[in-house]
Amino acid sequence: MKKFTTQKVLQYFLQGLLILGPVLITVYVIYLVFERIDSILRPIINVPGLGFLVVVAFIILVGYLSSFFVLGRLLSLLDHILERTPGIKLLYSFVRDFFEAFAGNKKKFTQNVLANVDYPDVWRVGFITQEDMTNFGMKDYVAVYLPMSYSVAGNVYIVPREKIRMLPEVSATEAMKFAVSGGVSETPDVDSEEKN
């Protein structure tokens, strides 16, 4: 029979936490999202899960109908009105651009790079969001979004093009996962010569 010391018990506790932590947090977040969406229609439809399915089906239906010309024009008109409404346009354009950057036709976080913004030999994982900064009076500069670890926040830097290294062997998803996880998630091996 194993002898349980305080150190061993602590070790087993931490080991259990490492195994259960990510699983439970993921399940809890999924549950919260499901519960929030499901509760939208709960006063009308009190069948668990049905509200969630109705909301998801509605979102899919809007996406499908937006591909038709008439509804597409209508949504474009609504977009135009919201963009011109004082007070609302700032929030609306920010939210729209945020969604577009991740999932729209104008995805922005697709060109993953290493950016040198601090010291000569220190590089950060980032994503080019603007290839041309001449409107800012900065020729041969690019805008790079650098995500923060364990956060959805990040910073935008205007960086000289020569201080950028493209990462062709690492997908945008893997690069984002690596940056947000604080560098602890695994990425495929990339030959350092190919980065230069």
Number of H/I helices: 6
Using the alpha-carbon principal axes, give the shape: flat
The major β-sheet equals: 5 strands, antiparallel
Oligomer: single chain
Determine the fraction of residues in helical runs and give it as a percent range.
40-55%
Rg from Cα: 23 Å
**β-sheet strand percentage:** 5-15%
What would you note in describing this structure?
With 196 residues, the chain is of the alpha+beta class. It has a domain at 112-195. 48% of the residues lie in helices and 14% in strands. It is built from six helices and five strands; from the N terminus they run ααααβββββαα. It has helices at 6-39, 50-65, 69-84, 88-103, 172-180, 192-195; strands at 112-115, 124-130, 141-147, 154-160, 164-166. It has a five-stranded antiparallel β-sheet, covered by helices on one side. Helix 1 (6-39) packs across helix 2 (50-65). It is flat and about 75 Å long. The N and C termini lie far apart (56 Å). The model is unreliable at 190-196 (pLDDT under 50).
How would you summarize what this structure contains?
This protein has a domain of 84 residues. The chain is 48% helix and 14% strand.
Explain the layout of strands and helices.
Blueprint: H1 6-39, H2 50-65, H3 69-84, H4 88-103, E1 112-115, E2 124-130, E3 141-147, E4 154-160, E5 164-166, H5 172-180, H6 192-195
Helix pairs in contact: 1-2
